[in-house]
Design brief:
six-stranded antiparallel β-barrel; 23 strands; 649 residues; alpha/beta; 19% strand; seven-stranded parallel β-sheet
Length: 649
């Protein structure tokens, strides 16, 4: 063992603190150092808002709909989305600050409005106030991470947490038991998916399912969970994002499973909110009785403080207040009993890893913890669900984007290395069967030529395209006409020598390339002219400044009612886990020094190149990017399949 539990978790706690400080500094910078307009331009704030709608719901929260004071204006581009924690503050108020704002969760967003769920009334200074929303740091999840690590560090007495801890930090090896071949529920599973489920079920401690892009990781996890529940065992299914949790929840419900979703209802997809614990409790018949008790208690309390003409009997008011307290206590006990009853009957519980509330889950244990998106989860967060589980299955792909980390110092300490990646690096064959992991090797997303480069570079050539997608092209779609662009799967356009020079973002560190952006628009228009639906096209760039520029250009449609403005444009990070029929990737970097910046994180490119189903177009300057060995291989691959083109063509 390299480290004792004290040393191991002490180091993780230090890295967590470094990241917390970096997040706070960034939040303070955006709030105090940037002008309101500059803060809004970062995507983490919205300014000059008014309350347009007020409501009540989502498990007892107040729902506030904000929009621009000028009702004809749409909201600007924003990073805020459903589930984002925010601070609501009154603009120009004497007490306006994060400490004096109101914490809430974004519960809905549309073109011209954003809805926030808050737990208290908002009382303002101004008669006609305007408001500002800022993305908030999540201190509750940080507290839970510290709490979970301390619990794991001190685990002893042969507890399951102690055993899991020792296996995961390298003090002991995992145990696998031979089991009988399974009878699968989903008859469409391929051999590698069945093998992964069988392997995971054989684990006494921990197993890893390695799921490259498009290989049906969620399908495999649903089968695994169904196999577990048929053994009359329980499952805690977690992921690092609400989107991933909801995706798994939706698939489990479709398979006929009874699932309870933990977490703030505002963070859950609207169609799935009826499965949240909060709403299940709220709609329970016994809780309706508790709500009446609460109303009566408050009415009694109000009555006890009112003056009456007749002098009350000695002790009468005190007696009324005591009766109100007793009624509130009874209401609380009813609600607690209902909550406990729902959780005790739940065979499957879904939540984000950091959304697990220790008070709510006290005394609740699960036979298995299934952690999806495990490669995108920082290690402290991964320890939160382990205090409730007997066994652990990690599922994800460490060859795609790692956890997002702001602190460069924490990153140097390995904070961006997930628990899954660390275990695979130490113990498993990352791209093959063996060790602690099993690889899903059949992908159902993309044409074989789109897949092949990533398969060779990241997965030792082990991926194969299913027959349903192996030769699928845009030209095969009924509304699309055949052209050199739609009848081929991949296209690299080399801008070398054409003076497509990159620029630094004004007042920022990001990069943009205006001429390359114009070329992207040209290719978008060609696809649209061939009949490709705007809903089937995405534009991706690793640089936020280029994303912003492309959004601006696409919003100014010059070819009538083409739908160009509705095409989705996002960063690589924002598009992970997504897919489209056609994807255009703008690499941006073009300079004499051959600097590629964070394009050097080749996992980012693996994500970008595996989002397309039928057509991948990559635009970049070969003279710049091929100074990096990965991009030299990439350009040679495009040449080998006849997909290389010069901008001069």
């Amino acid at each position: 063992m390299k480290n004792s539990p004290t040393e191991y978790f002490g180091n993780l706690a230090l890295l967590l603190d470094l990241e917390a400080e970096a997040e706070k500094r960034e939040a303070v910078r955006e709030r105090t150092k940037l002008s309101p307009a500059e803060a809004e331009a970062t995507g983490n704030s919205l300014i000059n808002l008014v309350i347009r709608e007020e409501g009540y719901g989502l498990g007892g929260h107040f729902l506030l709909g904000f929009g621009k004071r000028n009702e004809t204006l749409s909201l600007p581009w924003t990073r805020l989305g459903v589930g984002s924690p925010v601070i609501v503050s009154e603009e120009n108020a004497s007490s306006a600050s994060e400490e004096n704002g109101w914490r809430g969760i974004v519960s809905a967003i549309r073109r011209d409005a954003i809805q926030v769920a808050v737990s208290q009334f908002i009382e303002t200074e101004a008669e006609k106030p305007t408001f500002r929303l800022d993305r908030a740091t999540d201190e509750i999840s940080r507290f839970r991470q510290r709490q979970a690590m301390e619990l794991a560090r001190g685990a002893s007495g042969g507890s399951r947490l102690e055993v899991l801890r020792d296996v995961l930090i390298g003090a002991a090896g995992p145990v696998f038991e031979k089991i009988e071949p399974i009878q699968v529920f989903n008859k469409k599973l391929n051999a590698s998916q069945i093998e992964a489920v069988q392997f995971a079920l054989s684990a006494e401690d921990v197993a890893i399912i390695h799921g490259p892009p498009g290989t049906g990781k969620t399908t495999t996890l649903v089968e695994l969970i169904r196999q577990i529940t048929r053994r009359r065992q329980s499952v805690l299914a977690v992921a690092s994002s609400n989107l991933a949790v909801d995706h798994l929840l939706e698939r489990l419900i479709a398979a006929g499973e009874n699932v309870v979703r933990l977490g703030h209802p505002a963070r859950v997809t609207p169609e799935l909110r009826e499965h949240t614990l909060d709403l299940l409790v709220e709609n329970h018949p016994d809780v309706k009785i508790a709500n009446k008790l609460t109303r009566d208690a408050y009415a009694l309390r109000d009555q006890s403080v009112k003056w009456t003409r007749a002098r009350p009997e000695p002790g009468a008011k005190q007696s009324m207040r005591q009766e109100a307290k007793d009624m509130l206590r009874e209401a609380w006990q009813i609600e607690e009993q209902v909550t406990e009853g729902i959780l005790s009957k739940a065979r499957i519980v879904c939540a984000t890893a950091t959304g697990l509330d220790r008070d709510r889950l006290e005394g609740k244990y699960f036979d298995w913890c299934i952690m999806d998106e495990a490669s995108q989860c920082t290690e402290p967060a991964a320890w939160i669900p382990l205090q409730y589980a007997q066994r652990l299955v990690l599922a994800g792909d460490h060859c795609q984007l790692p956890p997002t980390v702001l602190s460069s110092e924490a990153m140097r300490g390995g904070f961006n290395i997930s628990l899954m990646e660390r275990l695979l690096t130490l113990h498993g064959a990352p791209a093959g069967d063996g060790g602690w992991s099993r690889l899903l090797n059949v992908q159902y997303r993309m044409h074989q030529d789109i897949m092949s480069f990533s398969s060779d570079v990241f997965y030792d050539g082990n991926l194969q395209a299913d027959e349903t997608v192996r030769t699928a092209l845009l030209a095969d779609l009924p509304q699309v006409t055949s052209s050199p662009l739609t009848a081929t799967p991949i296209h690299f356009i080399d801008t070398a020598g054409a003076s497509y020079d990159e620029e630094r973002e004004p007042d920022g560190d990001s990069r943009l390339n205006p001429l390359e952006a114009n070329l992207v628009i040209q290719k978008v228009d060609e696809l649209l002219a061939c009949g490709v639906s705007p809903a089937d096209i995405a534009v991706i760039s690793p640089y936020s400044a280029q994303v912003k520029l492309l959004r601006e250009k696409l919003s100014k449609s010059s070819i009538g009612d083409s739908g160009r403005s509705s095409i989705e444009v996002d960063s690589v990070d924002g598009f992970q886990g997504r897919e489209k029929e056609a994807v255009i990737v703008s690499l941006v970097r073009s300079n004499r020094e051959g600097e590629v910046g964070f394009l050097a994180d080749t996992r980012r490119m693996n994500v970008a190149m595996t989002r397309a189903r039928r057509k991948l177009i990559v635009i970049g300057d070969s003279a710049t990017i091929t100074t990096h060995p990965f991009y030299e291989k990439m350009v040679k691959y495009f040449e080998s399949v006849g997909a290389y083109h010069s901008v001069w063509e």
